[in-house]
Specification:
- The structure holds 2 protein chains of 2 kinds.
- By secondary structure, chain A is an alpha+beta fold.
- Chain A folds into 2 domains: 230 residues, P-loop containing nucleotide triphosphate hydrolases (Rossmann fold), CATH 3.40.50.300; 124 residues, OB fold (Dihydrolipoamide Acetyltransferase, E2P) (Beta Barrel).
- Chain A has 8 helices and 21 strands.
- In chain A, α2 packs across α3, α2 runs parallel beside α4 and α3 crosses α4.
- Chain B starts with a strand and ends in a 10-residue tail after the last strand.
- The longest helix of chain B is centred in the middle third of the chain and has 18 residues.
- The chains are: A alpha+beta, B alpha+beta.
- Chains A and B meet through α5, α6, α7 and β16 of A and α5, α6, α7 and β16 of B.
Chain lengths: 367, 363
């Protein structure tokens, strides 16, 4: 078991600065997901942990031991790629046994370890089959089996289920997470899919442009994003981010979106964060489920109009026009009847965020 | 008016029946989505309407006229593909003007300019008009492709996975834009996708295809809540619907598969007694994750296998015997892996399928 530390790591490819001053501590037994768009540096980071890529400066430590100068095989990590890099002429059994045999283990031990891993992954019935006879999900299970069988200090996974269809991804997500619960190995997992990150990680490290934007639990990242990038990268439907003007009023802080006459009124405390920020530089952020929608006039609500209804079966996403702004709200299925209908909306002040548009940073209440 | 209809259309490629005797009516000004897995025949159907494929049998009609023998250009439809297929060395303006410059159309330069300006404003690319298309982002390129389709003011738009190459955030934005655009233009739009979220959120109606045939045509609400068979039920909705086979004992008011047993509500018994159940009483139950509830007492016993944070909610994966059931629970629920728990079903939301044919027993 091992913790992993990345200290001040930097990496350039020519003029391209792919990792900038990265500091990351992955605890022993933790499942960390590195999340970000393509080109953000997440895969380079993972490859640097594995030793497949060098870093220009900084340190990488596994279990307290500095490894950034060591070749991959001396780091005791196992790497799982998106493409199932199995040997096509070998059976699943022989594929999984390969790293053990390469290390010169006895056949009796090989057999025991392969059988153990196959049981955990529920692939015992596939051991005699060759890769060409396996479906996508099973192939990836065998690939993971081959990585696990060595009992590495750390598992490093690069978009391991990205190539599978939606339903299989849903299943594999649960199984990979479960595997981690049972097996407890330190895991670093790279993906561009925020659903995978949210649903599997103990902590998510969100990267953009080589910089770590936030490193926190899924709920913290979702509920209190550090900046606009994180706010809009995590969560579906996307968080609403709109221009706003705020001013103190008799009942609290009055918030107007573009083109609004009657304001939303938030408690003065909710707007404490705004002190010292000019209105031009402010953006309001609110997740669709934090917008309250009523079908008749109600206290604290502002009149608006239904622009578009997107049914998702379990619930609807409703685009609501208020002033010149469109907000997306999440409502129960068929709650709003028709496009063009009048509705009344309010903002849940506890889940209303303000961002500085220049720096992108979320303004914290009371700071 | 551009009502599109297919009558008994068949198309084969070698030994493969890409579509078989397909009949479909798409209403004027409808946003119609053809949804299905890879190889279902949805793109072939679209290409038969476009005139890019010639069916072996059947009629393709646009605005009540049989167009089988018409060329693609004569059909007056506009196609948008997943690949942008723009002219890379030309500006956005030139790309938009291109379809209008055909001698057949006979537009004056002033007319062309007016139409280009209008289309560019509609898809919000006016600021990009002088830019070369190889300098655009993916989302901008797809807007230009859509603009180039709009500029001709065709009778029908045909779109084949136009959003599939874009990242998740952009897809979400363009989804709403495209639906708003279609309503504004009031033109029939036929949209092909394998993504059930796109189909549900954009379609006035969805035609779900599998293996060359239409399985069900209906509104998103009908497809989700009244699936014709277990294929439809599994194909739409995320997380996927839970399904398992049980033996129903109406006299005892119970359903069981040995491991999992639950009492049938009075209403459920009544429903089941009115259906033609298989002789052995075996029924495939379908229950959506939002209709599985965690309860304090009186439910079925299970344990928490895993919990996925999805932000607005948590998807709990409940293990009960050999079953893994997904339940959508509130985001602030406190649950721990391996904890014992109890769950029940919202019985008026249960679906009953024939365990062999998969047909919905209520249809």
């Amino acid at each position: 078991m091992a913790d992993i530390e990345v200290i001040d790591a930097e990496k350039r490819f020519g003029a391209n600065h792919v990792i900038r001053k990265l500091n990351l501590h992955i605890r022993d037994g933790e499942f960390v997901v590195l999340l970000g768009p393509s080109g953000c540096g997440k895969t380079t980071t993972l490859r640097a942990l594995a030793g497949l890529e060098s870093i220009d400066s900084g340190e990488i430590r596994i279990k307290g031991r500095r490894v950034d100068h060591l070749p991959p095989q001396q780091r005791d990590t196992a790497f799982v790629f998106q493409l199932y890099s199995l040997y096509p002429h070998l059976t699943s059994y022989d594929n999984i046994a390969f790293p053990l045999r390469a290390a010169g283990r006895h056949e009796a031990e090989v057999k025991k370890q392969v059988t153990d891993v196959a049981r955990v992954l529920r692939i015992e019935h596939l051991l005699a089959k060759r890769p060409s006879a396996l479906a996508g999900g099973d192939l990836q299970r065998v690939t993971i089996g081959r990585a696990l069988v060595r009992r590495p200090e750390a598992m490093l996974m690069d978009e391991p289920i990205g190539a599978l269809d939606a339903k299989l991804r849903e299943e594999m997500r649960a199984e990979l997470r479960r595997l981690h619960v049972e097996n407890g190995s330190t895991t670093v997992y790279v993906t561009h899919d925020q659903v995978e990150a949210m649903s599997m990680a103990d902590r998510i490290g969100i990267m953009n442009d080589g910089v770590l934007q936030q490193y926190d639990s899924p709920t913290t990242v979702y509920d209190t994003p550090a900046n606009l990038f994180v706010a809009q990268f995590v969560g579906s439907p996307i968080m609403n981010v709109v221009d706003c003007r705020c001013q103190a009023g008799a009942m609290g802080t009055e918030v107007r979106l573009a083109g609004m006459v009657d304001p939303f009124v938030l408690p003065a405390s909710a707007a404490a964060a705004l002190a010292g920020h000019s209105s031009e530089a402010l953006a309001l952020g609110i997740r669709p489920e934090a917008i309250g929608v009523a079908l008749s006039a109600a206290a604290g609500h502002v009149q608006a109009r239904v622009h578009l209804i997107e049914p998702l079966g379990a619930y609807d996403i409703v685009d609501i026009a208020v002033g010149d702004t469109t907000l997306r709200a999440r409502t129960p299925s068929q709650f709003v009847r028709a496009q063009g209908d009048a509705v009344w909306i309010r903002l849940d002040h506890a889940r209303t965020h303000f961002f500085d548009k220049t720096s992108g940073r979320r303004l914290k209440a009371g700071s | 008016m551009a009502h599109v209809s297919l009558r008994q259309v068949s198309k084969r490629f070698g030994a493969v029946n890409a579509i078989r005797e397909l009949s479909l009516d798409i209403r004027d000004r409808e946003f119609f989505v053809l949804l299905g897995p890879t190889g279902a025949g949805k793109s072939t159907t679209l290409r038969c309407i476009a005139g890019l494929e010639q069916p072996e049998a059947g009629d393709v009609c646009i605005a009540e006229q049989r167009v089988n023998d018409w060329s693609a250009a004569q059909r007056d439809v506009a196609l948008v593909f997943q690949q942008y297929s723009l002219y890379p060395n030309y500006t956005v303006r030139e790309n938009l003007a291109f379809p209008l410059k055909s001698r057949l159309r006979n537009f004056t330069p002033a007319q062309i300019e007016e139409r280009v300006a209008k289309a560019a404003a509609t898809v919000r690319i006016t600021h990009l008009l002088e830019r070369r298309t190889d300098r655009l982002s993916g989302g901008e390129m797809q807007r230009v492709s859509i603009g180039r389709a709009i500029v001709r003011e065709p009778r029908v738009f045909l779109m084949d996975e136009p959003l599939s190459n874009l990242d998740a955030k952009l897809r979400e934005l363009l989804r709403a834009e495209l639906k708003g655009l279609q309503q504004g233009l009031a033109t029939t739009l036929i949209f092909v996708t394998h993504d059930q979220v796109e189909a549900m959120t954009m379609g006035d109606r969805i035609g779900l295809m599998n293996k060359g045939s239409l399985v069900q045509v209906g509104t998103p609400h009908e497809i989700y809540n009244r699936p014709k068979n277990s294929f439809v039920a599994s194909f739409v909705g995320t997380p996927a619907i839970n399904m398992f086979d049980v033996r129903v004992d109406l006299a005892a008011g119970r359903a069981t598969d040995g491991a999992l047993t639950f009492d049938l509500s009075e209403a459920t018994r009544h429903t089941l007694s009115s259906l033609a159940l298989p002789a052995d009483g075996c029924v495939r139950i379908g229950v959506r994750p939002e209709d599985v509830r965690l309860v304090d007492s009186g439910g079925m016993a299970g344990s928490l296998y895993g919990a996925e944070h999805h932000g607005a909610e948590i998807v709990a994966i409940v293990q009960s015997g050999s079953h893994m059931l997904r339940a959508t629970i509130p985001a602030d629920s406190r649950v721990a892996v391996n904890q014992p728990l109890q769950f029940s079903f919202v019985q008026d939301k249960l679906h009953f399928f024939h365990p062999l044919t998969g047909e919905n027993l209520r249809h």
